[in-house]
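Field reference: "sequence" (input) and "structure" (output). Example, ATPase:
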Amino acid sequence: MEHNSTIAHMIDRIVSSQLADAIAHSPAVALLGPRQVGKTTLALEIGQRYGAIYLDLESERDRAKLAQPELYLADHQDKLVIFDEVHRAPGLFPVLRGLIDQGRRTGRKSGQYLLLGSASLDLLKQSGETLAGRIAYLELSPFNVLETRSLPADDLWVRGGFPESLLASDAARSLRWRQDFIRTYLERDIPQFGPRIAAETLRRFWSMLAYHQGGLLNTAQFARNLGVDVKTAGGYLDLLVDLLLVRRLSPWHANLGKRLVKSPKVFVRDSGLVHALLNISDKETLLAHPVIGQSWECFVIENLLTCTSNKVQGYFYRTSGGAEIDLLLLWPDGSLWAIEIKRSLSPKVARGFHEACADLAPVRKFVVYPGEERYPLASDIEAISLEELAREIVRAQ
């Protein structure tokens, strides 16, 4: 465990410079991400530069310090204060608002509060009501392909990007960590955030999403399989999306005179959790499993999306006639990049991709494949590795 945490400290997080910039320019910053993703590690590293005070709100002792939050925080107006698991102290937000406004009146504008949260829902609900215009949001995802270049490429896909899973000493330990993580979420963490849901029901739903990885959302089908109504199944999905564990990828919709698919795609964001939910222990087992193609496609999509800033939006495109693009990136200037994903060392571009590109006129077209070499597949389409395209996206921002 000690060794893992040392390696985790040595891996640079892409969001690190954005976080430092946000702290320098905003009076409050929220760093959101699932549990165990490395938020505390990153916050403490940045906090060292500021001589920050760290409060873990899951600790009774630290919560006790905030029995009179105005008094405690007034004593530390000159410091960056880090609040970990901030949803544990919802009464804190109005206090922070008052202190930030007071600081503004006295000429202090930035670097006061860093809030760490394991979910968007409670944090956004609370801070959205009381800290509007005073808070910047950043999301920390599990490790991505640009952060783990020194590790075997397929380890990130098979084990996922949670530090303890990726850096475990062998495949069995990695799988056990992910299974424990899922159980802890179901039994301890989710009950803090949502209405009481039987852990077993939610586990079945989460596993269904893993089997259905990257498929179009059909809430009615999920509801039937679970024996609940559609609204309840929709609520389960909303909860897992809010906990930053599942992604809904929206379909591109524009008036093109075509019949476009309107349902979002849904997938479990971390590939390692997909494999744990399906009891896939290692690469050999994965290669023989029917989820392999969708697992790799969603792994690529999630990695590319975690490399984008919140100014770049991701979609997919599909018409009833078969035109399809796996991932569309919409840039702030309105231009589009079209990305096709093929798990083959000699990828071929399908007719549906050409048709979709004719509909949308993207400025860049790529086919991501598992090889290393970058080469033209057609005059305006490049075959490219995941890592290389991730770098290209970061450079373009």
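The two ends are 36 Å apart (CA to CA).
The first strand starts at residue 28 and ends at 32.
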